[in-house]
Amino acid sequence: MNETRSDSRSSAPGASGGPPRGLVKATAPIARALAGRRWMPLWAVIRHRGRRSGTAYETPIAVVPTTSTGIVMIGLPWGARTNWARNVVASGGASLRWKARDVALVHPRIIDGAEAQGLARAPFRRVVGRFPAAIVLDRA
Q1: Whole-angstrom Cα distance, residue 134 to residue 49?
Q2: Is residue 116 within 8 Å of residue 130, measured between CB atoms?
Q3: Which residues partner with 44 through β-bridges?
Q4: 96 within 8 A of 105, measured Cβ to Cβ
Q5: How much is the pLDDT for 126?
Q6: What DSSP string runs through 84-128?
Q7: E strand residue ranges, 11-77
Q8: Best label site of 11, 22, 61, 130, fewest CB within 10 Å?
Q9: From CA 14, how far away is CA 20, in angstroms rounded?
Q10: Using CA atoms, how far apart are residues 72 and 101, in angstroms rounded to an integer?
Q11: What is the CB neighbour count within 10 angstroms for residue 20?
């Protein structure tokens, strides 16, 4: 059985366009401590498995408020090749610790920034529209 690891990197830095490793190392402990708490509704922890290794990961993410309660959207500011997003798509779903509750998510799909902008609530549209991609999942 694999141990749960905390995935502090969104994707490999450099060629894949991932976040700078130093930035991730500096902010990951804070994000991990706050994500998933009831009083932090924009931050959550997505639980997923490695697509090749099968290793369990918990990755802090920011949930984008949407116009539909049946979906959860997560912006991908580093693009669709972000490791955790590729893992979620490959497995067909994930679980989310959000607002102090566990939420099962299925049918993940990557969408572009323009489509994400249309799904986001008004105050978040401009920000999400600048992202190259987002991942949308249905609540199970």
Answers
A1: 19
A2: no
A3: 61, 98
A4: yes
A5: 94
A6: HHHHHHHHTEEEEEETTEEEEEEEEEEEEHHHHHHHB-GGGHHHH
A7: 43-49, 56-64, 71-76
A8: 22
A9: 8
A10: 14
A11: 10
Q: In sequence order, which residues have a C-beta less than 8 Å from that of residue 96 and are 6 or more positions away? A: 44, 45, 46, 47, 63, 72, 102, 103, 104, 105
Tokens of 92: 């067909």
**Closest to 136 in 3D by CA, of 68, 81, 49, 83:** 68
The token pair that represents 126 in the structure block: 């401009």
Question: Burial, 111: exposed, middle or buried (Cβ in 10 Å; 0-12, 13-18, 19+)?
Answer: middle
**Under-50 pLDDT residues of the chain:** 1-4, 6-15
For residues 7 and 134, give the distance between their C-alpha atoms in angstroms, rounded to a whole number.
19
Q: Which pLDDT score is estimated for 18?
A: 64
Tokens of 91: 């497995």
Report CA-CA distances (Å) from 117 to 21, 121, 124: 28, 8, 8
- Going by the DSSP 8-state scheme, the letter that residue 74 receives in this structure is E
**Residue 17 to residues 79, 92, 125, Cα–Cα distance (Å):** 8, 24, 23
